[in-house]
Fold this sequence. Notes:
Elements: H1 2-18, E1 36-41, H2 45-57, E2 61-68, E3 73-78, H3 83-93, E4 96-101, H4 104-121, H5 134-147, E5 152-159, E6 165-171, E7 179-184, H6 191-206, H7 210-218, E8 220-224, H8 229-237, H9 291-302, E9 309-315, E10 319-322, H10 335-350, E11 359-362, H11 363-366, H12 374-381, E12 386-392, H13 407-427
Parallel strand pairs: 7-8, 7-9, 9-12, 10-11
Antiparallel strand pairs: 1-3, 1-4, 2-3, 5-6, 6-8, 10-12
Amino acid sequence: MRLLWLCAAAAALLLVLASAGTLKDSPTKERYDHYEVYRLTLRNRLQLDVIERLAELSNKYNIWKDYDAHSQELHIMVSPEDLQHFQQLLRVHGIGSEQMVANVQALIDEEQVTAAADTAASDGTFGWTKYYELAEIEAWLDSVLAAYPNVTEQFIVGQSYENRTIRGIKISHQAGNPGIFIESNIHAREWITSASATWFINQLLTSEEPAVRNLAESYDWHIVPVFNVDGFEYSHTKNRMWRKTRQPHATSECIGADANRNFDSHWMVNNGASANPCSETFAGDVPGSEPEARALAEYLSSIQDQFSVYISFHSYGQYLLSPFGHTAAEFPDNYDDLLQIGAAFATAIEELPYGTVYTYGSTADVLYVATGTSVDWVFNELQKKIGYTIEYRDKGRYGFILPPVQILPNCQELMAGMLALIDKTKQLGYI
C-alpha cells in the first residue's frame, strides 16, 4: 500500500513536470479568467515541498501567500486548465483546501470598472478611491513638490533596470528632526501600498488634526511611494499579478527577481528565498544583482545618519513584522521593545470601528523565513534598531486585488497604527 501511494505521488509529480512552463512575456495583457485561489492546509514538510515544487515548475500556479507555520496555511492561485490535476494532487497527498477566490479576473475587472467610474465622475484631482498608474503618481508627486516648496524636496534613490527614476519625497519642517524612512511597492502587484503611501504623504502635509500635525512636524519623513517602478508599470500595463523586477536572467527565459530577497543580509540562508529564476521569491544570482536593490542600499548608506526608523509597506495578511527574517531560533537584543511597539500598533488599529486585527512579531517566527529583505538589511547592516514590514489588508478574500473601496479604511488604519508606533518608539527612547 505504501509503495502504491509513492508511485501515485511520483506519477503526479511527473505530470507537474510535463506541464512545466516559464514566465515569458506576453505581447497582450495577461488575463486570469477562471483562475482560482485556494487556502491549503499543509501538515508536514512533504506536503509543503510538493506545493512549492509545483509553483516553481509551472506557470499555471502562483503562490499568493507563502506557508505560515503557525496557521499551517499557504495561498495559491491555480489556472483553470490545471485545476483537475491540482485537485488530484491534493487528494494524493492528503492536503486540505478551501476556495478563497472563484475567479481572479472578475476581481481585476471590478477593480478596473471602479477606476473608470471614478475617472468619469472626478474633477481631475488625485484621490484615494481608485488605484493610479506610475505616471499619474509621479505627476501628483510633482504637484505636491510645487505646492509645498518650503517643507518638501525630492530625492532620487537611483535608476531601475529599464532606466526609470526611483523617486522619493522628503518632508521636513525644521532642521534637526529625527528621520523616518518609508519604502513602498517593492512588490509590483501590491497596489494598496503606493495608494497608502501617497495618502500618508498628503496627510502629513494637509491634515489639521493635532496628533497628525505633531507627527508631521516633529520628524523628517523620507518616503518612496513606488520603489519597484519597472514591475509596477508592468503590473498595470501587462500583468496585474506581476511581483518581481524586470531584469532578464542570463540563463533563463524567466524575468526578474524578488527585490525584497536581494539585499546582502543573510542572503539565501535557511531556505528564505529561491535560487530558481522562475520563482516568485528568486533572490537573484548574487546579493544586489538587481539595480533597484543595489541603488537603495547605496542611497540608505549615504543618509544613514538621517533616519532612525525604517518601514516597508507590503500586502497582504495584516501583519506587523520585525526582524529577524532569517531565523526563528533567535531574536534581536531589543525584541521585547519591538513587541511592545507592535502591540501598540495593533491595538490602535483594532480599536477603530473596522476592528481589523493585526498580528505582530518577528518575520520568521509569526510568518515564515524570508532572507535578504530590505528591513533586515537596514536592521543588521546599518544598525537601525526599529524596522518593520507592514502587511496590509486583507486575510485573503481579495488578496492583492483589494477593492478600491477599502483604500481609505486601510489608510485610516495606517495612520492610527503609525501614531501609536512612533509614540511608543519615542517613549522607549529610540527617537
